[in-house]
Amino acid sequence: MASERVGKDMSPGEVVRQRLRDIRRRRKLSSAQAAEMFDDPAMSATVLMSIEAGRRQTGATVDELIRFAYILDVPPAALLVTDDGAVQVAPGVVVDPARFRRWVLGQEALDGTNTALYKAAADQLASTTTSASPELREEFLARAQVAFDSFVADSEEIRRKTRQQVRGVLTDIREAATSGADTETLVGKIDDFLSRLE
C-alpha cells in the first residue's frame, strides 16, 4: 500500500497537540483545570496552551503525553492518532490517517521499513498484552460453552417441573372449588401450597 497525501500534512507532534486540545475540550476541562490535574508545578495553563498551540520550543514530551493520557482517561495511542489529515512520519514519508493509526497500533508496517523487524516487535508487544495463550483461551471457551449448555438444560428442567407443580396446585384448587368446598377449605389448600414454597 503506497503512502499518500490527504489534506494538510501534520507532524506527529501536531497530531498530539490537536488530539490533546480536542480531548481536553471534550472532557470540558479548561487549560487551568487540566494543568492542575497534571500535578506538576512546571505544567501551568500557559504552558499547556503553548503546547497545544505549538508555541513551545519543544512539543509534548513522552512523559507529558503519558501523564496527559492518564489524566484525560484515554489510552496513550488516543493522543497519537487522528482522522483529520495525512501524517508526515519522516521526510518524504506521508501516510493517510487510517494507515498511521494501524502503524501506531502495531497492525501494519510502513513502506520503507523492515517489515520483519516491525512484525517481530508488534508480535512481541501483542504477546505481552495477551493474558492467555490461544490454547488456554480455547479451553476456557469450550468449558464455558459446556457450563452454559448445562445451565440452559437445568433451567429448562426447572421450568418444566415448576409448570407441572403449578398445574397440580391449580388443578387441586379447581377441584375443591367445583366440588362445592367452603371458603375455609379453599383457603386451607392455598395456605398448604404456600407453606411448601417457604
Topology:
Blueprint: H1 12-26, H2 31-38, H3 45-53, H4 62-71, E1 87-90, E2 93-95, H5 97-104, H6 115-129, H7 134-178, H8 183-197
Antiparallel strand pairs: 1-2
Helix pairs in contact: 2-3, 7-8
Q: How would you describe this structure in keywords?
A:
8 helices, 434 Repressor (Amino-terminal Domain), two-stranded antiparallel ribbon, disordered N terminus, 198 residues, Lambda_DNA-bd_dom_sf, mainly alpha
Brief overview:
This protein is mainly α.
Note down, in words, how this protein is organized:
This is HTH cro/C1-type domain-containing protein. It comes from Plantactinospora siamensis. InterPro entries: Lambda_DNA-bd_dom_sf. The chain has 198 residues and is mainly alpha-helical. The protein folds into two domains: 118 residues, Orthogonal Bundle (434 Repressor (Amino-terminal Domain)), CATH 1.10.260; 64 residues, no CATH class. The protein is built from eight helices and two strands; from the N terminus they run ααααββαααα. Strand 1 and strand 2 form a beta hairpin. The longest helix is centred in the last third of the chain and has 45 residues. The N and C termini lie far apart (70 Å). 12% of the residues are buried.
Numbering strands along the chain, what is their spatial order in the largest sheet? 1-2
The CATH C-level class name of the largest domain = Mainly Alpha
Q: How many structural domains does the protein architecture include?
A: 2
Give the name of the CATH architecture of the largest domain.
Answer: Orthogonal Bundle
Shape: elongated
β-strand amount: under 5%
In DSSP terms (H or I, runs of 4 or more residues), the helix count works out at 8
Q: How many strands, what sense, and barrel or not for the largest sheet?
A: 2 strands, antiparallel
Helix fraction?
55-70%
Pairing-aware structural class of the strands and helices? mainly alpha
Average pLDDT number: 84
The rounded Rg comes to 33 Å
- At the fourth CATH level, what is the homologous superfamily of the largest domain? lambda repressor-like DNA-binding domains
